[in-house]
Every structure is written in C-alpha cells, then in structure tokens.
Write a structure and sequence with these properties.
Mean pLDDT: 95
Shape: elongated
Strand order of the largest sheet: 1-2-3-4-5-6-7-8
Helix content: 10-25%
Structural class: alpha/beta
Radius of gyration: 18 Å
Order of helices and strands: HEEHEEHEHEHEHE
Distance between the termini: 43 Å
C-alpha cells in the first residue's frame, strides 16, 4: 500500500554510532536519539568547530558532556533532553553563549544555578525548560534577555512570583505553563502586560 507510512526505524546501536562518527571534523548538525552512549563517545564533537546544531534526546549523558561541547563557538542550537543526570553544571565554560539561539533541556535536572548562565546569551530566542528543577529564580534571570520569544517552564516549581517576572519580558511571543502551580490572577496579569504573547496553560 503506497499510502501506508513506512515503519519507524530502530535507533542505531552505540557501536554503529561510534563507527560512523569517529574521525568526523566537518559536521554542521548532529542529532542523536535513544542511543545508549557514554559521554566519552561524544568526544569527537569537540573536533567539529563548525557545528551549529546539536541535539541529544534520551541519550544517557550527564554534565561531563559539556567538556566536549565547550570549545564550540558557532553552536546556535543546543538540546540535551530527557536525561535526568544532566544538571547544567559547567555551562559557564561554553564558548557558544554569545550566539546561542535555541536552548532545550526539558526532562533533565537543570537547575537555577545553571540557568544563571543563560543571562549571558544576548541572542537567546527559545528556552525550553520544562520538567526541570528550575524555580522563580530562573525567570528572574531570564527577564533581562531582550531577544527571548518562546519560554517553556512547564511542570516546574514556578509560582505567581515567577510570572510577575515574566511580565517584564516585552518580546515574549509564547509562554507554556502547563502543570505549573500559578493562580488565575497571575496569568491574567501576564496576559494584560504581554498582549502579543500566546499563553498555553492547563491546571
């Protein structure tokens, strides 16, 4: 049946990944999903100075992976998601902070202390921080980023006090506060302050 979608292919094995990436030096993008890699398997990343987009999804890495990402100066998209061992410790060593545009760490142990580093990202447009350990403190840090347009603090400990900080994010176009313990009044205040911002909320 030509109309039937092809079946999903299984993710490559660790051995396949290592065999195909060893020695690479001219990558522009890298996306790895559901591959049981060790952090050391990603050491080759540091030898790809032209890498612009890196996403690791359900890859069991911790903060040690930042050692290999740190030298990359052209990285505009960085995603490390659905790996609880990653907390963001060592983010300050990243040389891509001045150009970072898209940052995704949902489903990790990302913390307020790591989020402070994002204040040094003058071009940051998207921050996907859902299901992490952040609190109102992170939103306080992010409000100084004039370029921020999309913010996802879903399923975090953000409260009404955090949403008060969001009211000062004048350029925000999208806010996702799904399963966040905030009041109707706090959400209404954000809607009033940011009338061009689309807010997605569920209890």
């Amino acid at each position: 049946d030509r109309g039937q979608a092809p079946p999903d292919l299984p993710p490559p094995t660790r051995e396949d990944f290592v065999a195909h990436t060893s020695g690479l030096t001219h990558l522009r993008e890298l996306f790895a999903r559901k591959i049981p890699l060790r952090e050391s398997d990603l050491a080759f990343v540091a030898n790809n100075p032209g890498l612009e987009k890196l996403r690791l999804e359900q890859v069991p890495v911790g903060d040690g992976v930042l050692e290999f990402i740190a030298p990359l100066r052209k990285l505009t998209t960085l995603g490390i998601s659905n790996t609880p061992a990653f907390t963001g410790r060592g983010m300050e060593k990243l040389q891509c902070l001045p150009v970072l545009d898209d940052f995704v760490v949902h489903g990790t142990g990302f913390t307020d202390s790591a989020a402070r580093v994002l204040a040094a990202c003058p071009r940051l447009r998207l921050a996907h921080l859902a299901t992490t350990a952040i609190t109102d403190e992170t939103l306080r840090e992010l409000k100084g980023i004039a370029t921020l347009q999309q913010l996802y603090p879903d399923q975090t400990k953000v409260t009404d006090a955090g949403l008060a900080e969001v009211q000062e994010m004048a350029g925000l176009k999208g806010l996702w506060i799904v399963n966040v313990p905030v009041s109707d009044a706090a959400v209404a205040a954000v809607r009033k302050a940011l009338q061009d911002c689309r807010i997605t909320r569920t209890p």
